[in-house]
Amino acid sequence: MNRRVFAKQTALGSMGLALTPQFTLSQTTYKDFVSKRPPKKERLFTSKAIEEVIKKVKKQLKDPELAWLFENCFPNTLDTTVFYKEEIGRPLSHIITGDINAMWLRDSTCQVWPYVPFANKDEKLRKMIVGLINWQADCVLVDPYANAFKKDKSEVSQWKDDLTDMKDELHERKWEINSLLFVIRLAYKYWKTTGDTAPFDANWENAMKLIYQTLLEQQRFDNLGPYTFMRETTQANEVIANNGYGRPTRKIGMIHATHRQDDACVFPFYVPDNLMAVVELKHLAEMFKTILNNTTYAERCLKMADQIDSAIKEYAIIEHKVFGKMYAFEVDGFGSQLLLEESTIPNLMSLPYIDACDINDPVYQNTRKWLLSEWNPKFVKGKFTEGIGSTHYFEPPKRIWPLSTISRALTTDDKEEIMFCVEQIKRSNAGTGFIHESYLPDHPEDFTRPWFSWVNTYFGEMILILLEKYPKLLS
Predict the structure, then answer these.
(1) Which residue ranges of the chain lie beneath pLDDT 50?
(2) Single pTM value for the model
């Protein structure tokens, strides 16, 4: 189903919001912290290693509500969204988003990402991750332009009549560059963590070659490429200009997209995805060369990464009259630019998290200041809360997306700002025991998507990172 259909109907305060009595770690609103996890017999997948992590972290966290949230949220992907099987000994893992019965390539990588460091401690968990690597490769080979896939071809997608090449395996066919980039990201992380190269067989190599070919097509040096998308709709953020190809561009080496994070691009060069492409193409080149002994494709990937990087520096870093040099959100190569923000990953806030730049990079820091200011049309501020919203829902009302607040906490070394973010995320659960897609400022009980696995797991990842980086901050 559409994420909107499932929506529940219902800087430090421009860097100046302090930890008021409403936002202090020592206070709790909900006294009865009973686990919200499914009964053990109803959990779709279990991991001894992850259960040990939960026990350890609960003891470390001094705030009982934060510990309760971690217990509920960190295993949420395993508990409720993993469908694991083996076919002729080959692991396969289909991971739905939560309240939408389909697997997004981006979301599924993010959902298992914080489990990968524990793969060496749990063979069952390792095989589940290999299963996702395998399933993602299969998905790419079915259609590299699709963003979301069914578990079974017999399921009927509500988007089956979209004006694009819908195949039986597809839930939705929106071209988002990061769908393919997250496939690379997971494989590279798994390899670097485990040293295991078994999943990277001929099938996987063919999928990676197709990823390269698709990205090359969407540089559009020679033509517009094979992909178009149209949908019969009254929603402007579902409409792709220029008969489904997107607005005109200069061919500068950046990769074109029709969509970013489920919504239509205004200008086809979505900057965060292109920055992520530089990172992941270099990772793919390393895997081609080291694992597959394929120097031809390794060199091609590095050449493309250099092209994109050069074009970003020339066309996507702009001069703002207040903030100086900063990243644009989208550009077209002719000089047009869009200054905006999206809350999911990758976005401008999360660039250091995806290794696209250093936290202290001056261009990123200027961009971050802009993000947390009223110059950003998606910056949302209430009496006690502030954050960044999304283009995904119509406004008003403006909503805060916890995904972006988590990214904010992970892209600063300011402990006060980190604690401000942690406290806002904690309060946003509104007594449910889970983190949600979005909520109204100062009214977290008015939220969208009660079951959104990605944000739950990302919250758990944030807790683990903060405990490692700042051992005394939360414990």
Answers:
(1) 1-30
(2) 0.94
